[in-house]
Amino acid sequence: MVASQYGHVDIVKYLMENGIDIFCRNKNGLNALMLAAKNGNLNVVKFLVKNGLMVDEVDNNGWDAILYASKNGHIEVVSFFATHKQYMKNPKYNYTNALGIAFKNNYQEITEYLIQYCNKININGEIGKSVFLYAVENAHITTIEYLINRGIHINTHNNKNETALIIAAKNGQLSILKYLIENKASIHRKDY
């Protein structure tokens, strides 16, 4: 697994040819593919997938390889996974978590790539908050503008029934509040 983590594909190949178990996991449940993705080692990622590691396996915390690549800003690895047939065949995989992680870690390029690729910008993540609402909450105007221009439902709400406008008002974000109203956010919706 160390060779995968550090991007030594030739060593990974050699060890595999000599009987190493590429399917083993560390104490946290990470496998060689997750470690390679976490560190942006695309050649190792491709080799491991070609040799049978499943891209949608998860560790002890429920994280898969694309989440690790998103968290650490590895656009090439994210792109490989996003277009890989194992993800494309899985109708339940919606990239929302990878998208949210990329946004929260300020990886604009990955955020925009996943928005364009998955075309599901209005879907909420596991905690009931879309990337749009994350952007409003964190006053990330570039992402707010980008999402509005891509057709986000501006009146979407989180699991507390708070819209972007309510979040902006609650956080004292006057410039974002004005921008949302200028872009047709409803001022009549209630947060209950």
From TrEMBL:
Pfam families from the UniProt entry: Ank_2
Keywords per UniProt: ANK repeat, Repeat
Chain ranges passing through the membrane: none
PROSITE patterns: ANK_REP_REGION, ANK_REPEAT
InterPro entries, A to Z: Ankyrin_rpt, Ankyrin_rpt-contain_sf
Top-level taxonomic group: Eukaryota
ANK repeats mapped onto the chain: 1-27, 28-60, 127-159, 160-192
PANTHER family associated with the record: ANKYRIN REPEAT AND PROTEIN KINASE DOMAIN-CONTAINING PROTEIN (PTHR24198), ANKYRIN REPEAT-CONTAINING PROTEIN-RELATED (PTHR24198:SF165)
Protein name: Ankyrin
